[in-house]
Design a protein that fits this description.
- Helix content is about 40%, strand content about 25%.
- It contains 5 helices and 11 strands; from the N terminus they run ββααααβββββαββββ.
- The longest helix has 28 residues.
Length: about 200
C-alpha cells in the first residue's frame, strides 16, 4: 500500500512471544484501536487531522475516557489517526482526497483490532540487548540480538517511528524507522490496508 519518498533506515524485529505475552500485546492492540476509533468521529466532524490541532481538540477527553492507555500512548494514537488521515485525505492518488470531496461530508474511519500500534522513546526502549515496551499492565521485555551496525544506527540516527504490527494470529513484529527526514509519511498507492475501513456518509 505504501511508498516512502525518503531514504530512512528501516529495521524489522520479530517478537518471539510466550502465550502470556501474546495475550498482553493483543489487549494493547485492541485498546489502541478503540482510542483511534474514538478520534475518528472528531476528525469527521471538525475536518481537523493536523497532529497538533487534533491533540488540542481531543487529548483531554481521551485521557479521561481511556486512562489505562497512559498519556504518551494517547499521543501516539493521535499521531496514528493524523498520519492515516494525511494518507487518505491528502494523497493525490487517494479517492478520499479532500479536494475531491468538495462540500460532501467527511467519511468516517474505522480501525479494527489488527491496526498498527505506534510507540516512541517514552514507551519503548532498547538497551543492553533488551527491548522494553509499554503494555496495559506494565512493561514487557524481550532479549534481542542486533548486528553491530544496527546498534550503531540506533545510537547515531534519530528514531522517527516505531510500529508494532501483527503479522499473523500469533506473531508480532516491531518496525523501526530511523533517519533525518522531518516527514516520512507515505502516500496511498493501492488498496486500503486490512485494518482500516472508510464509511462514506
Amino acid at each position: 500500500m505504501y511508498y516512502n519518498s525518503y531514504m530512512n533506515f528501516k529495521l524489522c524485529i520479530p517478537l518471539n512471544t510466550t502465550e502470556e505475552q501474546l495475550a498482553r500485546l493483543l489487549l494493547l492492540q485492541g485498546a489502541f484501536a478503540k482510542v483511534c476509533n474514538a478520534l475518528a468521529p472528531v476528525v469527521q466532524k471538525t475536518k481537523v487531522w493536523n497532529r497538533v490541532a487534533l491533540h488540542h481538540l481531543a487529548y483531554r477527553s481521551l485521557r479521561e475516557k481511556f486512562p489505562e492507555l497512559g498519556s504518551q500512548m494517547a499521543c501516539n494514537a493521535i499521531y496514528s489517526v493524523s498520519r492515516t488521515c494525511r494518507i487518505l485525505f491528502q494523497s493525490p492518488q487517494s479517492p478520499f482526497n479532500q479536494k475531491l470531496l468538495d462540500a460532501k461530508p467527511m467519511p468516517l474511519l474505522h480501525f479494527n483490532d489488527t491496526c498498527p500500534v505506534y510507540f516512541d522513546r517514552h514507551t519503548l526502549s532498547i538497551k543492553g540487548g533488551q527491548l522494553s515496551m509499554f503494555t496495559l499492565d506494565g512493561r514487557m521485555r524481550f532479549a534481542i540480538s542486533l548486528k553491530a551496525e544496527d546498534e550503531e544506527k540506533f545510537k547515531t540516527l534519530k528514531l522517527r517511528e516505531v510500529v508494532l504490527n501483527r503479522t499473523s494470529a500469533k506473531q508480532f513484529e516491531l518496525n523501526f524507522t530511523l533517519g533525518e527526514s522531518q516527514d516520512d509519511a507515505p502516500i496511498l498507492t493501492n488498496e486500503l490496508p486490512d485494518y482500516l475501513m472508510v464509511s462514506p456518509t
